[in-house]
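2024-03-11 09:14:02 INFO receiving multi-entity request
2024-03-11 09:14:02 INFO entity count = two
2024-03-11 09:14:03 INFO echoing inputs for audit
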Amino acid sequence: MATGGAPFDALSSLDPETFAGESRAVINFLADYYRDVDTYPVQPQDLPGCLRALLPDAPPENGEPIDVILEEVRTHIVPALTHWQSPKFFGYFPMNASTAGFAGEMLSAGLNIVPFMRVASPAATELESAVVDWMGKLMGLPDRFLFSGGGGGGVLHGSTCEAVVCTLAAARDRALSRLGHEGILRLVVYASDQSHCTFQKGARIVGITRSNFRVIPTSASSGYGLTSDSVRDAVEADVASGLVPLYLCATVGTTGLGAVDPVRDLGELARRHSMWLHVDAAYAGSALICPEFQHHIDGAELADSVSMNPHKWFLTNMDCCCLWVASPAALTSALSTNPEYLSNVTDGGAGAGVVDYKDWQIALSRPFRAMKLWVVLRRYGGAGMRAYVRRHVEMAKWFEQELKADGRFEVVAPTRFSLVTFRLRPGHEGDGDAVDGLNRRLLVAMNASGRAFMTHFVVDGKFVIRMAVGGAMTEMRHVQDTWELVREKAEEVGALP
Amino acid sequence: MATGGAPFDALSSLDPETFAGESRAVINFLADYYRDVDTYPVQPQDLPGCLRALLPDAPPENGEPIDVILEEVRTHIVPALTHWQSPKFFGYFPMNASTAGFAGEMLSAGLNIVPFMRVASPAATELESAVVDWMGKLMGLPDRFLFSGGGGGGVLHGSTCEAVVCTLAAARDRALSRLGHEGILRLVVYASDQSHCTFQKGARIVGITRSNFRVIPTSASSGYGLTSDSVRDAVEADVASGLVPLYLCATVGTTGLGAVDPVRDLGELARRHSMWLHVDAAYAGSALICPEFQHHIDGAELADSVSMNPHKWFLTNMDCCCLWVASPAALTSALSTNPEYLSNVTDGGAGAGVVDYKDWQIALSRPFRAMKLWVVLRRYGGAGMRAYVRRHVEMAKWFEQELKADGRFEVVAPTRFSLVTFRLRPGHEGDGDAVDGLNRRLLVAMNASGRAFMTHFVVDGKFVIRMAVGGAMTEMRHVQDTWELVREKAEEVGALP
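2024-03-11 09:21:47 INFO inference complete, emitting structure
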C-alpha cells in the first residue's frame, strides 16, 4: 500500500510510486484542513510545553508509516497551532496560502535545485530575473529598478529583514569606500517610530552603533507618516556633530497603523545628503498593483531600493520577498564571493552580464522561489490579483464604516489599504488608563472566543486594536461575523451603551 | 474539471476541491520527473538568455489553467535546469529531496503558519525545540547544546550563512560589551584556507574590517585540516599588535576536499583567547549520526556553536540548517527586538523560559521548517538514516579504490565521508600546467556528456576534480557508470595509457 508502513529503504526515498502515494495522502490531509479550518478556534488556548510533553526525547530508531505521522499531526499538532489560514485570522498581517502558491512551492521543493549561480541551474536564474521584472511592472515601479529598464534589477529573498540587511550592507560599504572603515562609527540610520523593527535590528547586524539609529517621531497630524522637515532636522543635527547620514527608510503601509511616508519628499532629502533610501512596502506593495494606489510610491525613482512581500497579501505561500535595487553593483560589491569551488570551468566566456544571485543575498544556498511567484502570476493573472486585493479593501472599508456609524468606537488611523485600526472611545467618565484597560479586555475576550484573532498596537500612548483583512479564504461574511463579535464583546467587557 | 481553466475567483484560491485537484496534477508531474530524471543531461548545454527569450515581458492579464502552466514547465523550464536530483549529480554537495522531506515541506507550506514567536503558533516552536534536540542527540553533540541538557538549544535556519552571521553578531556584541563600539575596528576572525567563503562574507556583513579576516594556510601534511600551532601563531601576532581575537571557525568536512579541523585543539586555543568557536559541519554533520564518525567532533563541548544542514545529505528538501548554541542569551542579546505590535497581550504570565525564535535569527518571518525535519526523522528513523549515509560512504570508498587501482589517477585528500577528490597524475613528460589542462578538459568532457556532473577545486595550485556522492536516488550502478565515464573521457582527452 503506497501510504502504508513499508520499511525504509535507503534507495527508495524518491521512488515515483511511493512519492505519488504518500504525497496524495498529504494533499488529502491539507484539503480536509482547508475544509475545516474555519471551525477551529483561531488561536489555541494551550499552556507552554503541552506539545513538548507529548513528544519523546529522541527520534524513533525505526521509520514509521506516513499515515501514523499524519494522524499525529492531526491530533497533536493542529490543535496547538494558531491558524494563520483561518478566514477569521485578522492578526499581524495576512500570510496568504493559495492553490497556485502551493503548486509553485511543490514544484520548487520537488525539483529541489539550488540556483545560487546562473550555471547551477540556468532556467531558475532567468525565471527569477523575469518574474521580478513582472512584479515591478505590475506595481508601477520606475524603470530604473527593472532588468529590462535602466540597469537595475530584482531578487527574491525570504524576508524583508534579509533585504534590509543586504541594502544596509551595500549602503555602508559604499560610504566606507569614501570614509575608510573607521567611518563605520559615524554612520547614522533614520527611520520613523512607525517603521518596522527590522531596520533597527538590521542596522545592529551590519555594525552600526546602536546610538546612531534615529527614531523620528510621527503624529496623527500626518496620519503617522514621516515629515521631511522632521527628518531634515535630525539629519542636519547629526551632520553638525560630525556624523554621516547613511540610510533612510520610507514605509508604504506601516505595520502598526498602515501609515504611508512621503516617498518623493524623503527621496529629495536623501539625495541631498547622499543617503540610501529604501522603500519598504512589505504589506501594501500588493495593493500597488492597482492604479488607484500607485500614487503612494510617487517619487520612487529617487529611491535606491524597494521591497515588498508576495508572501503576505499576494497568494504566495511563505516565504517570498521581492527586493529591487537601482544599482546591482552596489549590492554585489558588498556581498560577492568567488571561491574556487564555485568558479565555472565549463562556461568561461559567459561571465559578463550574468546574474549570480548568491551575490545579491546573505546566503549561498537558496530555494527556487521564482517558480512559486511565477505560478501565482500565471494562474491568477494581473486582473485576478487586482480583483483579489480590491475585495479585501472593500471589506476593510465596510468594517471601518460600521465602526464610524457606531458612536462607541473611533478609527485611529485612516484605512488606506485593508488594515483597520480602532478602539473604544473614552466615555465622559473614563480616563485614558481605564479606556486602555477596556480595549485590552475587549481584544482578549475576542481572541479567547476563538471566533476571530486580532492583534494590537500602541500609538500616542493609546491601546489600539488592529483588524488586518487579507486572508485567502476571508469572505465578507467573516468580516460581518467579526463585527458582530466586536459589538458582543464590547458589551461584555462593559463598554458604555 | 479540477485541473482545468476555470476563471480565477478571488475567493476560491483555497477551495478544497480545486486545491486537491490541482495539487494532484503537480504530484503527477513530479512523479514523472523522478521517473525520468536519470535520462536527462545532468547539466543543460544552453546559452544565457535562452529561457528569458521565451518569456513574455509582462505577466498575463488573465489567469491560465494549471495544465498549461505545467506543460510550460515541462517544455521550457525543465530542459534548462541543472538536475540536482539526478542520480548522476555529483557536483558541489548533494541537496537531497525525499518523499518525507517533500511531505514535510507540503505540510509546512500548506498550513503556512509563521512561528516567529511561540504565541504566534505554539506547536511550531515546541516542535522545533524538540526536533533540534533530536538531531543533536543523533549526532552525539554534548548536552550543553540541547534544551534538555545544560542550558543551550537549537534553531532551524535556512542556511549556514545565516547561522554564521548570527553567531558572528553574537560574538561581536559580547566582545563589544567589554570594548565599547570602537572596538569593532580591532576584532579579528580566523578561518582556514579551506573554510567556506560564508565566513568571510559573514564577517564583512557584521562590520568586521576586511583586513581583519585571517585565512590560515593548511597543507597536505594535515590532510588540509588546520593545525592549532598555525592558528596560535596568527592569534598571538594579532594580540601583540593590539587586535582582539573574536571568532574561530572549525570545519568538519570542508567544501573543497572534505577536510576536518581538530575541534578539541582549536577549542582549547579559543578558550585561552576568549574567542567564539563555531563548528561548521554543514555537509559532514549528516555522517556524525553514525558512531564511527563521531570522533570528528571530539572536543565540541569547547565550542560555542555548531551547525549542519539537513538539506544537504539528510533527505530534507531545501532549505534547513540546524544551529545549536551553548548560550542562547548571547544570541538573543544580539538579535532580539520587542516592538509593541508583537507584544503578547493575552499571555502575560508566560514570558520566562519561552523561546521566541525571531530572536534567534535574522528575519522576523520564518517558515515552519520543524515540520519538515520532524517528518523526515519519523518516517526514516535513526537506523534508516544511518543506513542511508553508510551506503553513500561505501560507494565513495569503492570509487576511491578504483582510482587508486588505476595508476593514472591520484586521490588528493583522504576520502573521509562521501566526497572523493582526484586528478590525473602528471606523466613523466608533463609539467604542472599541462596536467591541470588535462584535468580541466577531463571535467569539461564528462559534464558535456550529460552522463554525470562534477565540479572542481584548486589546492596547492593543482586542479582537482570533486565527486560528491550522496544523491537520494544515487545507486551503486550510477557510481560504476561514472567510473566508466571517467576512464572513457580520460582517454579521449589524451591521458597517458
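2024-03-11 09:21:48 INFO post-check: The domain at 104-380 of chain B is CATH 3.40.640.10 (Aspartate Aminotransferase; domain 2).
2024-03-11 09:21:48 INFO post-check: Chain B touches chain A through 173 residues (CB under 8 Å).
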